[in-house]
Fold this sequence. Notes:
This protein has helices spanning about 110-115, 160, 235-255, 260-265, 280-290, 295-300, 365-380, 395-415; strands spanning about 35-40, 55-60, 70-85, 90-105, 140-155, 170-180, 200-210, 215-230, 305-310, 310-315, 325-340, 345-360, 425-435, 445-455, 455-465, 470-480, 485-495, 500-515, 520, 530, 540-545. It is α+β, with helices and mostly antiparallel strands. It has a 13-stranded antiparallel sheet, with no helix packed on it. A two-stranded antiparallel sheet has the order 1-2. α3 runs antiparallel to α5. The longest helix has 21 residues, at about 235-255. About 15% of the residues are buried.
Amino acid sequence: MIGIAYVGPSALTASGPEQVRISPVNVAVPNEGDVFNLWYQGPTGRARIDDSIKNNNFYVDHINFTGNKTKNEIDSQAVTVQSRFLDGHLVSLLGWRTDEATSFERLTAEQINDLTGSTSPYLDDGNFKPENYILQDTPSSVEEGDTFTGSVVAHVPGEWTESLPLAPRFSFHWGESENFSPAGLRRDVFLNVLSPPTGETSEYGFSVELAKKHFIRFNWFETASAGANSGLNAALVSNRQAYRLERMVAEPQNTGWTFAENKAAMTAGLDGVDPIPNINSYAELESAIIGLLPAELQSQYNYRVVNQNGNYTVESQSFGGQVATASVLAKGFEIDLVSNPTPNWRISVNVGKQETVQSDSAPLASQLANTVLSNIESTGLRDLRVSPTFGANETVFGEYNRLVLVPLNGVLAKDGTTSIEQRKWRANFVTNYRFSRDSFLKGFSVGGAIRWQDKVGIGYGQLYTDEAGIVPDLNNPFFAPSSWNGDVWTSYERKLSERINWRIQLNVRNLIGEDNDIPVRANPDGSIAVIRIPNERTWFITNTFEF
């Protein structure tokens, strides 16, 4: 059943996403005893391809949402030493930190079976078993990591440069730091526990102060990380088994089909060709689908179709936290300027550039995906309809290609290329002026800020290759335009007494700048698929009392 919710006025005459208006949807959470009149498609018995529209009352008994329970403990210790040499002209900082991350998972299906005599996560009344939320006594993983930080700042003695124009003062800096991110329990697609992501950052640069009024800092940095999340939904590589078992084995039996009827529906459109001549029962089909996974994963997931009083359901052991990892290298440069042209006027400017390259993406996920694909081909399941009782034409390969191979190949194709999903340049400008005490506007201040961001990639065209199938066309990216916004504020300050100072300030955020819908994702043909509503203009007043 597919639910459709109308969240605004009709969009039939809209010429683009900017004309679509969304209204708030206030729907109460269903409670036990509530009655809902629903429209749905097709009968509940055999011949589900009947697409007539039905109508009936549905009574809410109880609602179960999925649940899980984990526990993460992090024990950290750190030591920092700062030293000054050469009359403070050389400053060093050394730091050491150790982290121990301990993760606990809930009981496995086998442990629940030992306690209750059944691997099912449900009680007879349909509620979850309390045993599902008991933590194991032994941790699933214990990860330790030591990280070091070091930096040096060298200040050129002022007497060496005070005779130069504007009496410049120079400083040079260098630093390196290691990173250890206790990210909780993570597994690869083969269900092995992964170490937490690690990284290393180095930066260097220099700064100069002019006439004790202007300060400029130049900084270059590079960050390399390993074990980061590649962005691929790793769980889909192996977890599509439950979907196939439900649609190809459980649902046909619940509909009342014999296996012969089911096989005829699965092979419809193949011109009488039977790609699975050796599969002639639901048990054999179930075994073939489970066998798409390597043996070690079959035993861990324990996928199975269970007959409970004539109702066929799919059960398995669940594993959370599956990720496909990648290595990431980010390089950047930034300039910071702080200036006081007059005692009452302050200006701040920041300009930055950053580029990120991802590599070694999802190697284990790619390995497993190719294994499953090879098994789909060799077992003859490739061209079978994956949802025969619904009359859908999508095949086992089509479904796997759409949800697993296309996203995987998209990630792999971008390995070694600069990410367009990150804005390359950004700039910020802030200024504030406080009127002098001898002015008739004494106590008042006015200021403003401008924020600018470079264009950002929102998608690619697509190419088809014999080796990888559908992949993004890296030479044909689509971009959202650059954006800018500006704020203004004004404040008034005065003493209410010798000990109490009062300040009131009015801020208007996003007073000027872009107010069009912001493209977020583009379709392969370049049309906009997802937009984001721009930030609203906000007014707010704050009162501050200091005493």
